[in-house]
Amino acid sequence: VSVRDGERDKVALLELGADDFVTKPFSARELVARIRTNLRHKVVAEAGRTEVGELSIDFHRAEVFRKGVKVILSRQEFEFLRLLHENRHRVLSRSFLVERVWGYDFDGDERVVDTAVKRLRRKVGAGLIETVRGRGYRMQSPAADEA
């Protein structure tokens, strides 16, 4: 928790190792949501590797394989895929994805998310990422993964 909300302060906190932070004033709902998100990140980080349909994702090495063939992803594409995986079956809004993948101070159009989804679908398979009209995106998991 910080009272400092300037860009320099935010960058310094992140560079010093903070995974996330909130600035005052903040709501209890926001704090709980951020804590839950960070706990989900911890579970995925501890697991290290997962299988989703045709994909094998190694979170420690930031590597993805599709049917055994390495898929080359940019840092942003991998982060996007990681967020979708960590939040499977939840719809992630464009604004949430922009904040988490491109950064808090991203100045561009949120439609950058749509372009990223298009590229990612070409690389990992079209059926993995579902568009939820008017709300955002979510990862679809094959029924076998849900067991």
Describe this structure in words.
The model is unreliable at 143-147 (pLDDT under 50). This protein has 147 residues and is an alpha+beta fold. The strands form two sheets. The chain has a four-stranded antiparallel β-sheet, covered by helices on one side. It is globular and about 45 Å long. The protein has two domains: 1-46, no CATH class; 73-146, Arc Repressor Mutant, subunit A. The chain is 46% helix and 16% strand. The longest helix is centred in the N-terminal third of the chain and has 20 residues, at 28-47. The N and C termini lie far apart (38 Å). The protein has helices at 7-15, 28-47, 75-86, 94-102, 112-124, 143-146, and strands at residues 49-52, 55-58, 63-66, 69-71, 129-132, 136-139. Helix 3 packs across helix 4 (94-102).
CATH class of the largest domain: Mainly Alpha
CATH architecture of the largest domain: Orthogonal Bundle
CATH topology of the largest domain: Arc Repressor Mutant, subunit A
Separation of the first and last Cα atoms: 38 Å
CATH superfamily of the largest domain: Winged helix-like DNA-binding domain superfamily/Winged helix DNA-binding domain
Q: How many domains would you count in the coordinates?
A: 2
Number of strands: 6
* Average of per-residue pLDDT values: 80
Radius of gyration: 16 Å
Q: Sketch the topology as an H/E string, one letter per element.
A: HHEEEEHHHEEH
